[in-house]
Amino acid sequence: MFIARSHLFMKLLNQRPKTDQLVDGMIRLMRKHETFSGLLDLCCGNDRVSICMAKKGFKSVEVDISKAFLEDVKRKAEENGVSHLVTYAEGDVRKLKQVLGRVQKPFDVVTNAWTSIGYYSEYDDINIFSRAREPSRKSTILFITETVHTEYLSIKFAPTSYSEKTTW
Questions:
Q1: Nearest Cα to 144, choosing from 104, 105, 119, 113?
Q2: Segment-wise mean pLDDT, segments of 10 residues, the chain, 168 residues
Q3: Helical segments of 34-157, H only
Q4: Contact indicator for 77, 69 with CB cutoff of 8 Å
Q5: For a disulfide at 112, which of 1, 39, 42, 65, Cβ 3.0-4.6 Å?
Q6: How far is 99 from 103, CA to CA, in rounded Å?
């Protein structure tokens, strides 16, 4: 869905409300700590956090499996004049060490916003955060915000659908 049908999912992502309040709350908590060398945004989609953070002067590394999502984040960063503060790393977050490669580390903040946990097994989800710990400082803050999980989706079922005709 995030790769083969990214153009469809991006329409939903772009309809989400602004994240200014979320980011302002995160910054209030971050200000209690001393320094920030960077933010790692896991499964960033086409941006939930980084552009707002960059507008406030924070550097971030965006990680996502979808090239289309990362291209959209890059476009937004350029439009907002903050592209010098945002770095992009394409790949599967379950292989975070390889995905980050030579990206500057360590991180003082790791974030996972909206709905990118729960698509893999519980074991994989735990390992994603364990791997995010490796390139992070001892005092790193982890934000997991605005999550949506399969149980929520079944309770809040939306009776809409989309189908795409393919050539047989």
A1: 113
A2: 67 67 82 76 85 88 92 93 94 93 86 76 89 88 73 59 47
A3: 50-55, 67-79, 96-100, 122-133, 150-155
A4: no
A5: 42
A6: 9
Q: What is the dihedral of CA 158, 11, 8, 131, to 10 degrees?
A: -90
Token pair, residue 9, equals 């999912």
Rounded CA-CA distance 65/162 in Å is 22
Residue 165 gets which letter from DSSP?
-
Other beta carbons within 10 angstroms of residue 34's beta carbon come to 7
42 bridge partner residues? 63
Closest Cα to residue 106, out of 140, 77, 80, 67?
A: 140
43 near 64, Cβ under 8 Å? yes
> What pTM, to 2 d.p., does this model score?
0.76
